[in-house]
Write a sequence for this structure.
């Protein structure tokens, strides 16, 4: 019995879809790994790797570390603490006491301004409480607890917060070239994996209400207090969040709209438009898939329930994108009767994906408190895309109008073309 040609073609298309999907998953996994291992501005990776382990031994080893008992006030000088570096020159010493009482000593290289350590419930700055210390120009040490009501400078409130400082006075000690910020806090339950916010500013807090200047740099770290100093897992959630935003913006917010523009306005360049459209959309899908995978890992690490809408829309966009990829390999021939319906499906699913992608990028920037630079950047991207689409759409309709007018004249006056030819011949 002869094989059915249409059946064998369908099987071949399904096999191609499966192989391409596995390839895309593998490539996205590699992209996520490279994004997670991306170094920050000082060349440090976002987790404890070989180079950071060397730095750990240098900063916390008994042979090279400073004896804090010689200059810290009691009870901080009387407690044996575990030690681990966190980020840049930030080093954390901590001790687990009874009744969920934790003792912390944060140290960092200091010249001026303030340093702070915040405790977040969900990895975000807003809603967290922070202990901030500095030494004034006159040499007076200062320690204040702040409550971060919002991302604006006026919403960082001094002498407020949810940390129970256990009635033990905190201390700020300048032991050049480091400043040491020591405090005790009592928690409702044992600390396990805790999002910690680290920040510093080079300007001194204001004299009026001790208002903090804007931070020069900050990061969010998920620190595992249950693992101990030797096996502590330090994950830079701030760097992971930035990588997620970059991948999502480039994939969903730049490449996919660019591919759609190519498909609509470069049809005269056949088959160049088809190959450009396919390549651009494929690259955009890979970056978007990597962003979703990295975002899912970030969600699992921080367990931030406030990001559920952003996460749900992201998974929905990924589903639409996968349907588009599958539709590409299963598209019918141009002569097929159902090709028209396939075109409608492909166009409107694509438009829906682009719309929700733009909404989700804006939502992610807002919920992640990415800052003004991200807002301006994506506003420029959206403006560029909209201006490009409006301009190309207007030019396309202007090209269509003369063609339509010519067709109308020929349809209403069948001899018009002959008359025009005769008149030209006479002239």
């Amino acid at each position: 019995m002869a094989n059915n040609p249409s059946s064998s073609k369908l099987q071949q298309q399904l096999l191609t879809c499966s192989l391409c999907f596995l390839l895309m998953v593998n490539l996205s996994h590699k992209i996520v790994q490279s994004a997670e291992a991306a170094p920050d501005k000082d060349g440090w990776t976002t987790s404890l790797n070989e180079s950071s382990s060397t730095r750990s031994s240098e900063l916390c080893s008994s042979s090279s570390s400073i004896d804090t008992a010689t200059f810290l006030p009691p009870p901080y000088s009387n407690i044996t603490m575990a030690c681990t570096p966190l980020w840049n020159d930030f080093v954390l010493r901590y001790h687990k006491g009874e009744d969920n009482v934790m003792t912390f000593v944060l140290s960092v290289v200091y010249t001026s301004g303030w340093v702070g350590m915040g405790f977040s419930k969900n990895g975000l700055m807003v809603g967290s409480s922070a202990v901030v210390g500095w030494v004034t120009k006159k040499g007076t040490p200062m320690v204040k607890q702040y409550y971060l009501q919002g991302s604006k400078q006026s919403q960082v409130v001094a002498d407020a917060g949810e940390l129970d400082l256990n009635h033990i006075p905190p201390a700020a000690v300048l032991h050049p070239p480091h400043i040491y910020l020591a405090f005790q806090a009592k928690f409702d339950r044992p600390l396990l994996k805790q999002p910690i916010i680290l920040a510093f500013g080079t300007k001194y807090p204001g004299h009026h209400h001790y208002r903090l200047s804007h931070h020069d740099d900050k990061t969010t770290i998920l620190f595992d207090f249950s693992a101990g100093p030797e096996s502590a897992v330090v994950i830079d959630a701030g760097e992971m969040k930035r990588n997620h935003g970059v991948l999502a913006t480039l994939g969903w917010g730049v490449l996919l709209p660019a591919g759609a523009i190519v498909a609509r306005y470069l049809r005269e360049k056949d088959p160049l438009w088809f190959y450009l459209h396919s390549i651009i959309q494929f690259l955009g899908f890979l970056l978007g898939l990597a962003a979703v995978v990295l975002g899912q890992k970030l969600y699992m690490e921080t367990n931030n329930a406030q990001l559920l809408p952003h996460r749900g829309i992201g998974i929905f966009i990924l589903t639409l994108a996968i349907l588009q990829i599958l539709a590409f390999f299963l598209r019918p021939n141009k002569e097929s009767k159902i090709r028209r319906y396939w075109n409608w499906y492909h166009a409107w699913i694509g438009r829906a994906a682009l719309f929700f992608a733009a909404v989700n990028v804006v939502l992610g920037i807002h919920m992640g408190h990415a800052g003004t630079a991200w807002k301006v950047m994506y506003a420029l991207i959206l403006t560029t895309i909209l201006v490009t689409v409006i301009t190309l759409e207007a030019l396309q309709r202007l090209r269509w109008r003369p063609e339509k007018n010519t067709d109308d004249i020929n349809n209403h006056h069948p001899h018009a073309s002959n008359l025009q030819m005769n008149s030209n011949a006479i002239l």
Summary: Residues 372-412 form the longest helix (41 residues). The two ends are 71 Å apart (CA to CA). The chain has two domains: 9-37+238-409, 50-232.
